[in-house]
Design goal:
Elements lengths: L15 E7 L7 E11 L2 E10 L3 E7 L6 H14 L12 H4 L5 H7 L49 H13 L17 H11 L4 E2 L5 E8 L2 E8 L10 E2 L27
Parallel strand pairs: 5-8
Antiparallel strand pairs: 1-2, 2-3, 3-4, 6-7
């Protein structure tokens, strides 16, 4: 797997693509380029064939994804420059682009292939996507609960800092942070309240008449979801916000049970 991917693309054996691009001789015509990926000597084998004018069929192949494309693009650029046509910039086009491997649709499907995690150097753009529905793995016992429990003798190391932090959490009551935000545990500071709500915000319900709004903000080059109240909230009042799901057809409707006076009856 180490040779069948790069940082920006995956090279699956058996992949085929067809591209309509400029002819290498006649700058006012286009021809069909058929590309495919195979395997040779344990390495990926890239091949592209096309037919042009009286020369007939031409095949470019090699272990490098840019094999043949670099020379072809440079010839096209020089030919168009001689005829004073719109300039072509070969340095911005790569073999991966012309094979279609960097197209978002293709990349999303390739990233859903089994064992794709073995591509250590590849930079994932979409993560594991359920585009391809794979069959479930056969469990020999028929149930996950009947699988034997594997014991690990490795102990988690405890440092002085981690011990001090745990003692501080226990003394301030933050150790009970796994409980609900509506519990009656004593809290010493606002920062500890925010720390306790780090996971509980995921369980805020939907309402057609919400007392909060959800906003996506940029913070330290990452997108964060911020829950903001839109009115004064009474003590013990449940927090809620509008999920704003996309509208869907009747068969995929999700009923809304918020009970508000202006309830839309459907969440989507």
């Amino acid at each position: 797997m180490a040779l069948f991917h790069s940082k920006s693309a995956i090279y699956p054996v058996g992949y085929k693509a067809t591209r309509i691009y400029w002819d290498s001789i006649n700058t006012r015509k286009r021809c069909i380029y058929e590309s495919w990926i195979g395997e040779k000597d344990g390495k990926p084998w890239f091949a592209t064939s096309y037919s042009t004018g009286s020369i007939g069929e031409i095949t470019m192949c090699g272990h490098d994804v840019n094999e043949g494309w670099t020379e072809l693009l440079n010839n096209l650029s020089n030919l168009r420059a001689q005829q004073r046509m719109l300039k072509l910039f070969p340095k911005y086009l790569t073999g991966e682009n012309l094979f279609g491997l960097t197209a978002p649709v293709v990349a999303r499907i390739l990233e859903s292939l089994p064992n794709i995690e073995l591509c250590a150097n590849y930079k994932f753009r979409f993560g594991r996507s359920p585009v391809l529905e794979l069959p479930l793995a056969v469990n020999p016992t028929g149930s996950a609960r009947s699988e034997p429990h594997v014991k690990h003798n490795r102990k988690k190391p405890h440092t002085l800092i981690s011990n001090l932090i745990s003692e501080y959490y226990e003394s301030t009551g933050i150790a009970d942070a796994a409980s609900s935000i509506y519990g009656k545990h004593f809290v010493h500071s606002k920062s500890s309240q925010y720390r306790r709500m780090k996971l509980d915000w995921r369980y805020i319900n939907h309402s057609c008449n919400p007392n909060c709004v959800a906003e996506v903000v940029n913070f330290e080059k990452e997108k964060k979801i911020m829950i903001i109240s839109n009115r004064h909230i009474l003590s013990g009042e449940e927090l809620n916000y509008d999920y704003k799901f996309d509208f869907e057809e009747e068969g995929n409707k999700i009923p809304c049970l918020c009970g508000a006076l202006n309830c839309r009856k459907w969440m989507n």
